[in-house]
Specification:
The chain has 323 residues and is an alpha/beta fold. The chain has two domains: 3-140 and 263-285, Rossmann fold (3-Layer(aba) Sandwich); 142-261 and 294-322, 3-Layer(aba) Sandwich (Rossmann fold). The chain has 13 helices and twelve strands. Helix 3 (74-83) crosses helix 4. The radius of gyration is 23 Å and the shape is elongated.
Length: 323
């Protein structure tokens, strides 16, 4: 090869390298929990992103910012992503992350996963027409509290006192507690409330439930509890408290029963929406996605350890039974 030809080849390779770099878009991923607790959901998000035609490390880069359950860090983390001029910010793990992202920018598109009603929180104008720079997926976790309580009482029909476990550091805690108290009143039962905002608090919370003679427990949805899934399941087993959780993953990990939407599928849909926005769609025109499928999962091994017999009427409704 002549020197001139070799030079043109080098120029072409460098030019192609710059072109690929220029085409690689950057996503900001802002989350309340620590990275270790989110690995399965990240896999689901990347799958949705791939369905939309984007592969991390090839056609898109993702800048991760984890608050490690310290919500005070979120504003600075969001501001950092804005300063990088990312193409989209994905805000997950609770409304604190969404609020931090929305306060940091009114122009960069935001895709959120929200456990509460995003209209009530002021994140969007309406579910069908978000109207601003944010859209995403809502799980409506608070609205399912009464349904989960009802299912738990079918397993523990003689329960007189039901407890709720909540994280007092969660901005949604008061909202969830009001929904829980309204639900318990409709059943005419006594209610106990246990709180835990750190790993150290969890053991003390379950010890308090023993002293309060709680017959059953509803774990209210919280990203911190999701990150402590295995410890929660172990504490419920050790204290022999029949417990209902929100996510299928909790029952798979050994929890007695779970009822709620598929959180993995919702993160996959968030990935799809992120890809659509990267292709030019406007958040204002993308309706907030609501769950259409709810999963009832029962762990028979845990039921046996607790000395519970699951009614056939409940087993017949179960989407999955773990033996």
């Amino acid at each position: 090869m002549r020197r001139r030809d070799f030079s043109w080849v080098c120029v072409a390779v460098v030019a192609r390298s710059y072109a690929v770099h220029a085409q690689r878009l950057e996503i900001g991923f802002l989350s309340v929990p620590a990275a270790a607790a989110w690995s399965d959901l990240l896999t689901a998000f990347r799958q949705g992103l791939a369905e939309a035609g984007f592969v991390e490390g090839q056609t898109v880069a993702i800048e991760y910012r984890w608050a490690d359950n310290d919500r005070a860090r979120l504003p600075a983390l969001a501001t950092d992503l804005v300063s990088r001029q990312v193409a989209v910010i994905v805000a997950t793990g609770g409304q604190a992350a969404i609020r931090a992202a929305m306060q940091a920018t009114t122009t960069i598109p935001i895709v959120f996963t929200s456990g509460t009603n995003p209209v009530a929180q002021g994140f969007v104008a309406s579910l069908s027409r978000p109207g601003g720079n944010a859209t995403g997926v809502t799980l409506f976790t608070g609205e399912l509290i009464e349904k989960r309580l009802q299912m738990l009482l079918e397993l523990v029909p003689k329960a007189a006192t039901v407890a709720f476990l909540l994280n007092p550091n969660n901005p949604d805690a008061e909202l969830h507690l009001r929904a829980a108290q309204a639900a318990i009143r409709s059943f005419g039962l006594h209610v106990q409330v246990a709180t835990a905002g750190t790993e150290r608090d969890l053991s003390a919370a379950f010890q308090a439930l023993l002293h309060q003679r709680a017959d059953a427990l509803v774990v209210l949805t919280d990203p911190f509890f999701e990150s402590q899934r295995h410890q929660l399941v172990a504490l419920a087993a050790t204290r022999a408290i029949p417990t209902i959780f929100q996510w299928r993953e909790d029952a798979v990990a050994g929890g007695l029963i779970s009822y709620g939407p598929s959180i993995a599928s919702m993160y996959s849909l968030a990935g799809v929406y992120t890809g659509r926005i990267l292709k030019g769609a406007r958040p204002a025109d993308l309706p907030v996605i609501q769950p259409a499928i709810f999963e009832l999962v029962i762990n028979l091994k845990t039921a046996k350890a607790l000395g519970l017999t699951i009614p056939q009427s409940v087993l017949a409704r179960a989407d999955e039974v773990i033996e």
